[in-house]
Amino acid sequence: MSTEDRPAPRSLAEALRVRDDDSLAALLRSRPDLITPVPTDLTQLATRAGTRASVLRALERLDRFALQTAEALAVAADPATYDDLLALMAGDARDPAVAAALPRALATLREQALVWGGEDRLRLVRTARELLAPSPQHPSPTGLGPTVQEATAGMSPGRIQEIVTTAGLPTTHDSVSAVTALAALFSDRERMAALLDEAPEESRAVLARLVWGPPYGQVTPDPAAHLRWLLDRGLLLPTAPGTVVLPREVALHLRGGHAHREPEAVPPVVEATATHRPAMVDATAAGQAYTALATIEDLLKDWDEGGPTVLRAGGLSVRDLKRTAVALDVPEPVAAFWVELAYAAGLLASDGDADERYAATPAYDEWLERPAAERWARLAETWLTATRTSGLIGGRDAKDRALSALGPGLDRSAAPEVRHRVLTLLAGLPEGAAPAAESVLARLRWERPLRVPQREDDLRSRLARWTLSEAELLGVTGRGALSAQGRALLGTPVVKAPKESEPSGPGDKLPVHHHRPSLPREPLSPPEQAVASTAAARLLAPLLPEPLDHVLLQADLTAVAPGPLQRPLADMLSVLADVESKGGATVYRFTPASVRRALDAGRAASDLHDFLGAHSRTPVPQPLAYLIDDVARKHGHLRVGAASAYVRCDDDTLLNEILADKRGSALGLRRLAPTVLAAQADPTALLDGLRAMGYAPAAESAEGDVLITRALAHRTPPRTAPEPVPDGPPTPDATLLSAAIRAIRAGDLAATAPRKPAAAASGEPAGTSGDLPRTSSAETLATVQAAVLTGEALWIGYVNAEGAASQRVIAPIRVEGGFVTAYDHTADEVRTYPLHRITGVAELADD
To answer: Among 2.30.30.100, 2.30.40.10, 1.10.357.10, 2.60.410.10, what is the CATH number of 753-843?
Structure first.
């Protein structure tokens, strides 16, 4: 049967049944909740597509114009023609932009199974109509009230006839024809214009206030003359005591046929506020990327010996976040962003000990060994796909509890989609163009109007603003424009700006290019994202500075690192010196305490001299050499061990000096022998006290050996990164879609296959149909054996080992040992079924 000869579908299930596989795949891809789990047939798929939760989710993913089209269908007749819909959307003037965009919007609604039927019988899914249709409790988004027929449903026949007569229409024999005549009057542009010409000025002012909604108003029991004029002619109809409504037909006439005040057929343009040379954008972004890596390293190095404690409710305390911000020299919201990013990437976690603290994970050490560009790509990919949202930190949750860094309640499932969409809009601009933030927000509101209320502080708008600032911090953008590595992270090519229209200043505006097939609207799948991240790292690598193997030593006991240092050099220098300042170059300062720290870690003075000589492009300054030798000469001269604690030294003069020093009174020192002092403090406190007094003691073991206090980095046990919280079921891949469609069609074949009437059994009349066929064991065996001989297909009811019942179409091949082997059309494979699990069998009717 050709498409033209096929009868019009009578239900959504029939409409789905005539779709091809590509159309079904598009439906399941746009509404993945429909195959979770996979429906048994198309009827179940249609039922699921009409459930309230599924329809609401589909409506939330419509853009502004597609949603306006659905809203227009909700107030149109059911079914409506395409011309009716066009009149509601484009108005009497037939706006050409609306007329051009309407087919696309209608195709979107059809694809998502929100609308079905031909252009002469368009039907909006009933659940969507209920969600969008107007009522006193839930006014329509269009601002339209009920029709004349709906508004007069409870009105007395006499009152209806009075309204018809006053409106200038002849009386009728029944209320139905009277209401029909009144609706026809209100829908006739010429007659309606003539009627309104007679209206008092105050009456027209009342209609003007109600025309764009809400259509309901209040009246007193004795309304004013201008209101009485409207009520008498049905231009206002009572809905409840003291409440009147403007009928839909009247409002549409006053609106010029428009269902919406402003049909938004064209998405808002994303404007550029400035343009920069692409090379400058990429270089700026690369500098930010390098800073991001250094910041993460500084953060976890600060927590090397165990970071802040975990709050009882989970997360980081406000005081610890402030301390971290001071250590990183960044504002607290920025510090929270870096902490959350490291956590989402699996680089830090809680150690799980009794005194639970945050610390780096073993994955952090593996991350450090990778090239810088790959380390950045991992951070950027994590940020793009994470649902944890650092911007919420410091706010309150629904139960008015404070939201803390690393704590619960920070997941927002919409975050990955918003980040991806914001960057995609930036990718749609010419290369080097920085967008106006307000135009980006306006575009997002157009794309998801139900999810984005029209206000500046809604979650989706805040996510977009945070995305723009976080992308700049991370180096995905530079100077506000998307960098080359940022485009690669999205899996999109670079878009060159046309030379003849290339702007030259911040006042120029660049429109975003719409409908680019190269710009994916949905986030990439994990394998695709991994490929995109690799490409981004490859683009970033040449832009990052090469690590240096040298520093510049200066006479003021400082060393200048003119760029990033190779890891062994940086690690050793961080022990031997303290960081004094950072920037394009890092300045390290050598102090007695820092040199003693290196000696405590097991380095000898000769080792330090050799290290500095090998890695300095300038001669080792004499003051630095003297500092190392002086600290080394004193280091270990005093020995501290455990009795309670003691100090021993071969130089009794030095011990006399310590006893005479008033700063040591808190240590409770007393002489036990000419070379030994006892202390009331423990060894650790004694070491710290003597060092504070300017000495360089060394700890020793019970055997008298010097203990090397090498600082070992504290690590958590292996931890997995937190999983993002999904925003509904994931989009199915091609393999799952193909398998699901095959299973649905096979199940539909089994459910709709024509069957011969079954013989009367158990008191049922012949031909009675049920959900599953019911036959006796003997009848089942005989029918299956006959089908083996004739090669015919059968329809069976089957109950599996878990007790789940299903219908299947099979072609029996053989029957033996209580089993039937058959080709299962439902599963599209040969299977074996126990005969005792077949509840019944029926022959298929001839075509």
So the answer is: 2.30.30.100
